[in-house]
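Example 5.3 — Cytochrome P450 4C1 isoform X1
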Amino acid sequence: EPGEPPILPGSLPLIGHGYMLLGDTVYFWQKFKEISYTCLQNGHALYFLIGTQKFYVLTDPEDICLVSNVCVAKDTVVGALIRSLLGSGLVFADVPTWKKHRKLIMPSFNQQILDGFIPIFNNQAKRLMKKLESEEDDKCFDPTPYVNQIILESICLTTMDVKLEEADSVKFLEAYDQAISNGIATYCKFWLRCDLLYNMTDMKIKQENCIRIVHETSDLVLQKKRMKNKRNRAKINSVDNNIEADIKKDTAKCFADLLLESNVLTEQELRHEVNGMIIAGSDTTSTVLVFALLLIGSYPEVQEKIYSELTEVFEGSNRDVQKQDLSRLEYLEAAIKETLRYYVMAPFVIRHIDKEIKLKSCTLKPGNNCFFSLYGVHRHPMWGDDVEEFKPQRWLDSPSRLPANANAFMAFSVGKRNCIGRAYAMMTMKILLSHIFRQYRVLADHSNMKVKLNVIIKPCSGHLISLEKRNM
Ligand code: HEM
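Solution (predicted structure tokens):
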């Protein structure tokens, strides 16, 4: 249509670019990168077709900010795939539910509450160190299972105030991973999108089983939280009223308490929010931590700078991280941000275009879906000639050589529906990494690593690390 962006080359009659779905998740990642580069080189906007369905792709930060603030709906086919697993919590909620729930949940991510999580993050870091110690002498290992488990437990301990047993978290993580793989396999075999055919496959039974385990875990967390609150209420009732007032005043409400006490959510909505928060908070943060270990482990000069900053801030000690340390860990923060820029864990987000939007060079028409290629934005020439290089220093150089557009860093997305857990994630990653890099030299080589696109990107081979204990 007039004014619309150009079509991605390679469209075939009837199926459009649908043949791009016939591959594995490593191939998807290659394809997605190719599309993003084509978009970057051809005016920052294009569209591709899956059958007759049109998907726009954008790589210009200003265009993306505009669209993300005008359109907040995520009502897409891809959304439907993920919703079966995540439920319709905040991440994939329809717009009226999202508006109501986001307002309700926001206060549980304020700075005062996050500061209260610091002791938990320190303890979790120490638990992770214990697990890593068991690998110290073995040469190479995959840190993913350890990191996944610690982060999942941290999310439950902080946002829900509940302890998830190790066996339950292992069961959850296995089922979740399997469910995502099954979901993607089903989506790509487009004939399985017909319920009649899908219901006849083994995949349906396997998938239902995985989703059941994932949902049982959120139910268990909710059940534990309710029991804990009941016990606390009983304790409060048994002491005198002055103490009751003190306890109430001092307790900043965590995510689960806000939801439980609001009385505006149905039981089903409550379960979806808990489930969504566990997944949105844990899979993301643990994947970024693994990428950070791999990248920093591959660049000894970066790691030594982190180590000397840690030695200065902690005066060579192994003590816990305190609130005032966090702002002093500038280089570590730069290395985390550069990890998020370089391997943008969520390489795209999707919006449903529900009204016509005029962009710099084209117009988006309602009724279509739009991919914001966050990967493309992070490879935009505005980052400079060294855009393809891992350089934490770019975040600290003075005069600044960062892009003039403050939204050029999009790892947590932008606009009204951006990541609610950004500050939480940065805090937990800083604390965990500051424990690891004080005690260990991490050795890795990301140059031969293979990455797959499984909704988010994840390393799938060549991602082993080894550890050398430092003399403290
Ligand atoms: C490094 C870690 C993380 C990254 C890179 C990340 C990234 C993202 C991205 C790209 C989105 C999509 C936004 C959109 O559709 O525009 C998102 C949404 C979301 N994230 Fe995160 N996230 C991280 C950690 C967390 C944590 C720790 C939590 C909670 C504890 C969290 C909770 C959420 C929620 C609830 C949403 C949905 C927000 C909404 O629709 O209103 N995330 N995140």
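Remark. Strands lie at 45-50, 53-58, 348-352, 357-358, 363-364, 369-373, 440-444, 450-454, 456-461, 465-469.
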